[in-house]
Amino acid sequence: MGRDEADRTLAHLRDEKERIGSALLELEAHQGYRLLQGSALEGETRRLQSTVRSRMASLWSLFDLYGGVLGAAEELRARHSRPGQAHLAELTRLLAGPSVELPAEEVPLERRTLLSAPSGERLTLQDVVARMTPQYQEVARMVAGLDAVWSALLSRLAEAEAERNAAETLLDALGGTDPVLARLTAGLGSAAATVRSDPMALARDGRADTARLDELHAALVERRRALEEADRLRAGFADRLRGIAVVLDLVREAEAEALAHRAEVLDKIASPVLPDVPRPAAALTDRLAAVGAPGRMAGAEGGWHDLATRVVDLERAADDALARVREAGGVIRGLLDRREELRGRLEAYRVKAARLGLAEDTELARIYDRARGLLWSSPCDLRESTVTLAGYQQAISSRTNGAAR
Questions:
Q1: SS3 category, 204
Q2: How many other C-beta atoms are found inside a 10 Å radius of the C-beta of residue 190?
Q3: How close are the terminal C-alpha atoms of the chain, in Å?
C-alpha cells in the first residue's frame, strides 16, 4: 500500500470497528438479551442461553483481536508521518494480511488437523469480520425469537395474574376459602414457573403457545366476577380492609426499599452506624388476615362492634408502621445522600478553582484527587472524605485570600 491508500484503509477500518462495536452493544441492550442474562433458566431456554453466551463471548474476543491489530496499525502510522517502504510494508501486513492470530482454543474444530501445531489460526481483518457476521446474525435471530415468545407469554401471564390477584383480594375481603380459586391459582403457579424458567418449552414453530394461559385467564375472570357479586353485600367493610391492605403494601415496599438501601450503605459506606429496619408488615398482615377471617359477621362472637374496633386499631397501627419504616429508611438513605452531596460540592469547588485560575496548582490537584478517590471508592469513608473536602475548600480559600492581599 502507498501512504494514501494506507490512510484510506485505516479510516475505513476505524469506521468499521466503531459500527461493529455499536452493533454488539445494541445487541446486548436488546430486551431479549437482557431477559436471558438476568434469569435462572431451565431446559430448552437454558440451552439457548448457553449458546448465546458462548457466541457473544466469541464475538467480543474476535472484536478485541480486531481492535488490537487496528490499534497497532494506528500507532505505527502515528509514529511515522512520512512512512518508508518498510513501514508501509508493515502497515500493509497489519491492514490486509493475516495479522490476527486466534488463540488455539478459538480455532473451530473443523479447521483443525490431527497433526496441527498448537498455535492458533491466522486471519486478515476482513476474515475476522466474515467470521463474526454469521455468529452475530445467529445470536440476533435467537435473541429476537426468544423476545417474541417470552414477551407474548409474559403479557398473557400478567393478565392472568392480575385476575388472580383481584380474585384473591376479593376473597381476602370476604373471608373463608375458595377451592376453585385455589385450584386455578395452583395451575397458574405451575404455568408461571414454566414461562419464567423455560419459555421456549412453550414455543411452537417460533411462536408462543398461550393456550393454557388463555384457559386459566378465562377461568379466573369468571371466578373474579363471582367473587365480586358476593362482595357487594360487604362493600363498606371490604373497602376498609382494602384500605388497610394498600397501606400494608406501602409498608412492605418501604421495608424492601430500606433494606435495599441498608445493603447498599453497608457495601458502599465505610463503618456506617445504621438503625435497624422495622419489619412490622408480616405481623400486621397476619392481623389483617385474622380480621377478615370467617366468623367476622355480625352475630359472631364479639359482633360487628368488636370487629370495627379491631379495624380502627389496625388502621392506626398500619399508619404508624409506615411512618416508622419510612423514617428508618430516610436515615439510612441519608448516608448515600450525604455521599452524593459531597461529590457535588467537590466538583463545584473544582470548577471554582478553575475559574480562579488555579487549575494548574499541583497541590490543589493532589488534594482534589485524594478527595475524589475517597468519594468514588467503595466503601466510602464519609468522615475522611468530609475532612479532605474541607481541606480542599480551605486550600482554595487561602490561595484566593493570598492573591487578594
A1: strand
A2: 12
A3: 64
Nearest of 33, 300, 7, 71 to residue 176 by alpha carbon? 300
Q: Which residues pair with 186 in a beta bridge?
A: none
d(CA 318, CA 245): 9
DSSP codes joined into one string, 250-309? HHHHHHHHHHHHHHHHHHHBSS---PPPP--HHHHHHHHHHHTSTT-SBTBTTHHHHHHH
Q: Containing H/E element for 364?
A: helix 362-375
Torsion of Cα atoms, 6 then 11 then 12 then 17, to 10°: 120
CB 281 within 8 A of CB 245: no
Say what the pLDDT of residue 399 is: 86
How far apart CA 91 and CA 93 sit, in angstroms, is 5
Amino acid letter, residue 363? E
CA distance 346 to 331: 23
Written as one string, the DSSP assignment of 337-352 is HHHHHHHHHHHHHHHH
> Can you give the pLDDT at residue 106?
56
DSSP structure class, residue 108 = -
- Residue 8 pLDDT: 92
Q: Are 321 and 284 in contact (CB under 8 A)?
A: yes
The 10s digit of each residue's pLDDT in 4-48 is 888 899 999 999 999 999 999 988 888 788 878 767 888 888 888
What phi and psi values does residue 109 have, to the nearest 5 degrees? -55, -40
Cell of 330: 430516610
Cell digits of residue 334: 441519608
Neighbours of 225 (CB within 10 A): 13
Ranges of residues in the chain whose predicted pLDDT is under 50: 117, 296-305
* Nine cell digits for residue 402: 493570598
Is 250:319 a contact under the CB 8 Å cutoff? no
Write the CB contacts of 105 (distance below 8 Å, at least 6 apart in sequence).
Answer: none
Q: What is the DSSP letter of 356?
A: T
Dump pLDDT digits (tens) for 155-170.
Answer: 999 999 999 999 998 8
Q: What is the per-residue pLDDT for 238?
A: 72
